[in-house]
Specification:
mainly beta; OB fold (Dihydrolipoamide Acetyltransferase, E2P); 5-stranded antiparallel β-sheet; 1 helix; 8% helix; globular; Cold-shock protein
Length: 65
């Protein structure tokens, strides 16, 4: 699934994404750390990967594998 970064705290490495359907989804520091990214900016387009339970496990740019 994809969305737009709504909030991002560089200190805690957590944030929220506004999904295309209008829902807001929080992501933990572990999901950001798994991405290999160094920072996110508000309004940036991201892809959200989740596990079978629906927990966010990775936040990446749509152009990254």
């Amino acid at each position: 699934m994809q969305g737009t970064v709504a909030t991002f705290d560089e200190d805690t490495r957590t944030g929220t994404v506004l999904l295309d359907d209008g829902a807001q989804l929080q992501f933990p520091a572990a999901a950001f750390d798994a991405s290999g990214l160094r920072h996110l900016r508000l309004g940036q387009r991201v892809r959200i990967d989740h596990d079978a339970a629906g927990d966010v496990i990775k936040v990446t740019l749509p152009t990254l594998p």
